[in-house]
Amino acid sequence: MHPEDIEAEARRRKRALRLDEWQMREYVTGDPMPLRIRHLCQQIDFAADALARMASIPNDFRDDIYWPPCG
Fold first, then answer.
1. In degrees, to the nearest 5, what angle opens at C-alpha 29 toward C-alphas 39 and 24?
2. Distance between CA 53 and CA 49 in Å, rounded?
3. Of the chain's two ends, which shows fewer C-beta atoms within 10 Å, N or C?
4. pLDDT band for position 63 (cuts 50, 70, 90)
5. Which residues contact residue 40 at a Cβ distance below 8 angstroms, ignoring those fewer than 6 apart?
6. How far apart are CA 58 and CA 65, in angstroms?
7. How many angstroms separate the Cα of 40 from the Cα of each of 2, 31, 47, 55, 56?
8. Whole-angstrom Cα distance, residue 27 to residue 23?
9. What is the DSSP letter of 70?
10. CA distance 19 to 41
11. Beta strand residue intervals within 1-71, DSSP E
12. Apex CA 42: angle with CA 14 and CA 57, to 5°?
């Protein structure tokens, strides 16, 4: 496992939140994205950073147990 794999998983999880759409909406309308989405993205970044810093990245790093709940 490589840090790039973790970054890809973080991007996948952000795509599932439709982050690009929220950012575009914020840019076009001036209305901020919901705090829930912003906080989830921060938590995803924190989880990705923590996983990437591990001496041995777990083979199952894509498992939901390592990531914030997005439901």
1. 55
2. 6
3. C
4. very high
5. 17, 68, 70
6. 11
7. 23, 18, 10, 25, 25
8. 6
9. -
10. 8
11. none
12. 75
Q: What is the pLDDT of residues 11-53, one digit of tens each?
A: 999 999 999 999 999 999 999 999 999 999 999 999 999 999 9
Output the pLDDT for position 70: 78
Tokens of 24: 């575009």
In angstroms, the CA 15 to CA 58 distance is 23
Digit-coded pLDDT (tens) for 43-53: 999 999 999 99
State the Cα–Cα distance between residues 29 and 63, nearest whole angstrom.
35
- Predicted TM-score (pTM) of the model is 0.86
- Identify whether the C-beta of residue 22 lies closer than 8 Å to the C-beta of residue 33: yes
Give the three-state DSSP class for 42: helix
Place of tokens 């982050």: 19
SS3 45: helix
Amino acid at 47: A
